[in-house]
Amino acid sequence: MKRRAALQMLAALSAGAAIPPGALEMVLSGAAPDLVDQMDVDRWEQTVHEYRHVSLMRWTGALIPDLTADLVALGRLLERKNPPSIHARLLRVSAELSGRLAAELDDIGDRRAARVAWASARRAADASGDRDLSVWVRGVEASYARWAGCPDHLVIDLADEAIALSGGKPSRGLGGAYAARASLAARRGEEHVAFEALQNMAEVTDRAPEAFPEYFLRWNEAYAYTFLGDGRASSALEQALALYPPGTMTPVANLRLIQALDLVQQREINEGLEQALTVLQEGPISTTRYHLAERILGALPEQARKLPAARDLRALTVRA
Predict the structure, then answer these.
(1) For 226-267, what is each residue's pLDDT tens digit?
(2) Which residues form the signal peptide (predicted)?
(3) End-to-end distance of the chain based on CA atoms, in angstroms?
(4) What is the Cα 255 distance to its own chain's centre?
(5) Is residue 290 part of a domain?
């Protein structure tokens, strides 16, 4: 088995591909003690922190191979008879890595695989006893479900479940739940509901800025204001773009698409279309980007739909 795993590794490396999940662990099995100690768990928790940062700096889908490989390795550790405190910490790591994998899968359009990963994340979070983590899984799932073509009631149910489970304690999951509610209400033209959700989200940022940074708040404000045709959209967009860390990819690209929609709604048609085309040609077209591009096309006046840039945008966003 070890020889086969080593050959798989060498073949992958020579081809410039990712090492198959589990191959490295098989090669190294027996080379270290078969116990999971505090330092092992510390390293896994550090891995989670790294993913939180790296996820901003990569395009959608780029982390799926790494997350998959890490979850395979982590699963083997969870099968051992670990002390309860160690097991609970490993479950927390598993919940977050599974949630991040689910989010990536949702945004590349693989909803079936995403559902499986979300369910795994919920089970691990709930079994760990970490309520904030359980709130996070449901809040983030609601946040991604809004782009994945899920029925509105599913998004609302997930968001409401996260909010109820939080008990009002501010957290990144609670912020994500309010973000989902704000976006959905804005899409439906429900101004009062959207503004109330945005206010609740702002309170989360005020009370727990380290958990739900201001750039998350401004991103969702920009989305809601733009979809509602609110005059504060341009200002919120500028604020959000200025707040994201240098090198941020997907969230900033999506903000620029929202900005393109705002331009089109203000009848800056050519500028909006050109910006949308530029953004979509920079990276993979995720479900979020499809959603925004379709909204841009839908906002075009009848006479503008025959423009070459509009035809190019439509051709670029035809789903396979």
Answers:
(1) 999 999 999 999 999 999 999 999 999 999 999 999 999 999
(2) 1-17
(3) 39
(4) 14
(5) yes
